[in-house]
Amino acid sequence: MKAVIVEKTDATPAYHNAKIVDVPKPEALENGHALIEINAVSLNHRELWIRKGLYPGIVFGSVMGADGVGRIADLKGASSKHKVGDRVVIMPSVGWIKDPRGPEESYQILGGGRVHGLFSEYFAVGQDNIFHAPDHLTDIEAAALPLAGLTAYRVVFTKGQVSKGHNVLITGIGGGVALMALAFCVAAGANVYVTSSDEAKIEKAVRLGAKGGVNYRDDKWGANLQKLTGGQLFDSVLDGAGGDGIRVYAKILRTGGIIAQYGMTVKPQVDFPMAAVLKNIELRGSTMGSRLEFEQMLEFVTKHQVKPVVSQVWQGLESVEEAFETMKSHAQFGKLVLTIRSSSKL
């Protein structure tokens, strides 16, 4: 079968290959496993960081990709939940079952490391890690959901404790996680505000349900946010940027407010000020989520008919390099998807 692997290069700065190769199709399934015929996959920034050599635990020769949707082609062992032909999404990681604090076992995200990923024509997986794809989603939308949806669900509800009527700030709108967080917060009845350096992205976020947004390149962006809320403080900040913004968050958050940090793409550290301590503000790290949270996320998506935002779609694994170039340019608003085989749900 065709698959995309990470291949080491000696380029400086590092940029490893995403190489299309022939690899053996999984044949002898372990008991309790399923063989998935992959219909579509989507990219995450994690794959770009792997190619740049900035992600820990890279295993060269490993199949890339954590997100995908497909049909069950074969099952080994009895299953009360699944049957051949079912359309499913795959849990994008292994080793974390239900503990809300963190993984119980050796935790691995699919692709590019010790556990092979989904950028392939078939994928073998334990039946406990596959779930029925929400019926209202096309294959393209379902492929865009797993990693971003799980990460966003945990940061919004488990860590951010967002609920109806809350004022929530989502920074750096445009990426997959931030957009899923926006959708979840809006569905929960929160008042959502966003930041971006791109006015067009702010306008798109407003069309998706945000109350408003500000350009973080403006020195007075914190004060501008306060004008938008009429002086009301924020209950939570959902941040994927890191860096110096935390000093502004300390000013605009209520006493006991929460900063839920799910990434640090701008600067890999934060400077937590004493002003935040005095206001009892909490800084909570959040990475991915458990299998239980993944199941809860899918239930929430189905109940509220949430749809991931898809920016661009290509046909075939051979288009993976073009998709990576789009991601590198920061041009996307939403997820980048590759379709692998045709389906009635595309």
Automatic annotation (TrEMBL):
This is Enoyl reductase (ER) domain-containing protein. The chain crosses the membrane at residues 168-194. It holds the Pfam family ADH_zinc_N. InterPro entries: ADH-like_C (IPR013149), ADH-like_N (IPR013154), ER (IPR020843), GroES-like_sf (IPR011032), NAD(P)-bd_dom_sf (IPR036291), Zinc_ADH-like (IPR052711). Gene3D superfamilies: Medium-chain alcohol dehydrogenases, catalytic domain, NAD(P)-binding Rossmann-like Domain. The keyword Ligase does not apply. GO terms for molecular function: oxidoreductase activity. It comes from Dissophora globulifera. Residues 8-338 form the Enoyl reductase (ER) domain. The keyword Zinc does not apply. Keywords: Membrane, Transmembrane, Transmembrane helix.
